[in-house]
Amino acid sequence: MAHLPFAPEVFTLLEEISEIRYEEPDQQRLLELIPQYDAYYCSLQVQVTRHVIDAAERLKAIATPSTGLDHIEIEYARSKGITIISLKEDYEFLKTITATAELAWALLLGVLRKIPWGFESARQGIWGRDIYRGHQLSGKTIGILGYGRLGEMVTEYARAFRMKVIASDIKRIKAEWVRQVDFDTLLEEADILSIHIHLSPDTRGLIGAKAFAKMKQGIVIINTSRGAIIDEHAFVEALETGKVAAAGLDVIEGEWSRDLASHPLIHYSREHDNLLILPHVGGVTFESQAMAYARTAEKLADFLKTYSDTRKD
User: Fold this and answer.
1) Residue 267 designated active-site
2) Which domains does the chain have, with CATH numbers?
């Protein structure tokens, strides 16, 4: 695991019961070191592939301070008897972490009011008020894809901004200010689509050419979930044609690649002012990371204590 320099105390509990090695995230280094360890505390920057799992001769647990698990080959790890520890179903705890929902809203304001591009213009002494004319949120319809913890938080922000809110989810939505609709209706009626579902085989590429065809001309898309939920080839085309007027992304497919400069969305963003991309910083705040890392360390410590007690018996 890597140090959390601004909150080193989060690993104190683990240090009291185990020997810990701190390493900066590196794929090759993980592959070299993993055979020596009983537990691995993940970085989202490194993939736990089959090669890593096959090399992990002693490994009993993988802990990740995240709800998303697509950086781990979950089923293969479990087939090897490895326990996966995450925050995915830690519902009460997760309600206290709002950073990703806040960032989704920041991305929405950023692209609708053209804040990054207006700032760059002003910084160079170009006072282009009419050039950076944007849109207000009041009266717009926001579609929430996935009414879980983050989707629910975003609907509350939307309500405060006097927006109409529709949402699509497999479970019943009880909030009186949210109209629950099916997926197709969500695509057809939303002025803004905010994505808050997990990546799975069923959701990979869910927002593709067929989905874009059902959307309003000039829709705005916000994605703080996982890049692979959107078919990026179809996405670039939708941005180029104006089907998607603007988008704010905290995630892209293949974001762990070393060479991102040639990524189609990053390449597009260099030439256009309707796509804002951030480097997956949704949960990267001092508060949220300290809380998530500490909670995950606590759960891993409990596992290691139980595992140690079982071995003694």
Assistant:
1) no
2) 8-93+285-312 (3.40.50.720), 98-277 (3.40.50.720)
What sign results for the dihedral spanned by CA atoms 32, 37, 41, 42? positive
CB 29 within 8 A of CB 49: no
pTM equals 0.91
In this structure, are residues 280 and 255 in contact, taking their beta carbons and an 8 Å threshold? yes
Q: Which of 226, 232, 263, 295 is catalytic?
A: 226
Q: What tens-digit pLDDT sequence spans the chain (313 residues)?
A: 667 788 888 899 899 999 999 999 999 999 999 999 999 999 888 999 999 999 999 999 999 999 989 899 999 999 999 999 999 989 999 999 999 999 999 999 999 999 999 999 999 999 988 999 999 999 999 999 999 999 999 999 999 999 999 999 999 999 999 999 999 999 999 999 999 999 999 999 999 999 999 999 999 999 999 999 999 999 999 999 999 999 999 999 999 887 899 999 999 999 999 999 999 999 999 999 999 999 999 999 999 998 776 665 5
Catalytic residue among 232, 255, 263, 295: 255
Q: Is 287 a catalytic residue?
A: no
Mark whether 255 is an active-site residue.
yes
CA angle 81, 84, 89 (to 5 degrees): 140
- Do residues 14 and 1 lie in contact, with contact meaning Cβ atoms separated by under 8 Å? no
